[in-house]
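Researcher: We're teaching a course module on how sequence relates to structure. For the next exercise, students receive a sequence and then see the predicted structure as C-alpha coordinates, so they can try to spot secondary structure elements on their own. Here is the exercise chain.
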Amino acid sequence: MSLAVIGMVAGMALGFAGYFGGFGAFLLVAALGAVGFVVGRFLEGDLDLGGFFRPRDDRRR
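Model: And here is the predicted structure for the students to work with:
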Protein backbone atom coordinates (compact mmCIF):
# COMPACT_ATOMS: atom_id res chain seq x y z
CA MET A 1 0.00 0.00 0.00
CA SER A 2 1.43 3.39 -0.94
CA LEU A 3 2.08 6.14 1.57
CA ALA A 4 -0.57 8.32 -0.10
CA VAL A 5 -3.26 5.70 0.52
CA ILE A 6 -2.13 5.20 4.12
CA GLY A 7 -2.21 8.97 4.66
CA MET A 8 -5.67 9.19 3.13
CA VAL A 9 -6.99 6.42 5.42
CA ALA A 10 -5.43 8.07 8.46
CA GLY A 11 -6.96 11.42 7.49
CA MET A 12 -10.37 9.84 7.03
CA ALA A 13 -10.13 8.13 10.44
CA LEU A 14 -9.26 11.46 12.06
CA GLY A 15 -12.09 13.16 10.21
CA PHE A 16 -14.65 10.59 11.35
CA ALA A 17 -13.36 10.76 14.94
CA GLY A 18 -13.57 14.54 14.92
CA TYR A 19 -17.03 14.62 13.37
CA PHE A 20 -18.69 11.90 15.45
CA GLY A 21 -16.70 12.09 18.68
CA GLY A 22 -15.69 15.71 18.95
CA PHE A 23 -12.31 17.28 19.46
CA GLY A 24 -11.33 14.96 22.33
CA ALA A 25 -11.84 11.88 20.16
CA PHE A 26 -9.87 13.56 17.38
CA LEU A 27 -6.92 14.12 19.73
CA LEU A 28 -7.14 10.56 21.08
CA VAL A 29 -7.09 9.04 17.58
CA ALA A 30 -4.21 11.30 16.54
CA ALA A 31 -2.16 10.43 19.65
CA LEU A 32 -2.77 6.69 19.30
CA GLY A 33 -1.89 6.91 15.61
CA ALA A 34 1.41 8.59 16.46
CA VAL A 35 2.19 5.94 19.07
CA GLY A 36 1.37 3.20 16.57
CA PHE A 37 3.60 4.84 13.98
CA VAL A 38 6.57 5.01 16.36
CA VAL A 39 6.08 1.40 17.50
CA GLY A 40 5.81 0.24 13.89
CA ARG A 41 9.01 2.04 12.91
CA PHE A 42 10.79 0.54 15.93
CA LEU A 43 9.62 -2.99 15.10
CA GLU A 44 10.74 -2.59 11.48
CA GLY A 45 14.20 -1.57 12.70
CA ASP A 46 14.05 1.95 11.26
CA LEU A 47 14.17 3.64 14.66
CA ASP A 48 16.90 3.36 17.29
CA LEU A 49 15.61 4.19 20.76
CA GLY A 50 19.11 4.13 22.27
CA GLY A 51 19.50 7.84 21.60
CA PHE A 52 16.58 8.62 23.87
CA PHE A 53 17.95 6.66 26.82
CA ARG A 54 21.65 7.64 26.75
CA PRO A 55 22.77 10.22 29.29
CA ARG A 56 23.24 13.70 27.88
CA ASP A 57 26.75 14.10 29.30
CA ASP A 58 28.03 11.13 27.26
CA ARG A 59 30.22 13.21 24.91
CA ARG A 60 33.01 12.01 22.68
CA ARG A 61 36.24 13.88 23.22
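Model: If you want an answer key for the exercise: The two ends are 45 Å apart (CA to CA). The chain is about 75% helix and 0% strand.
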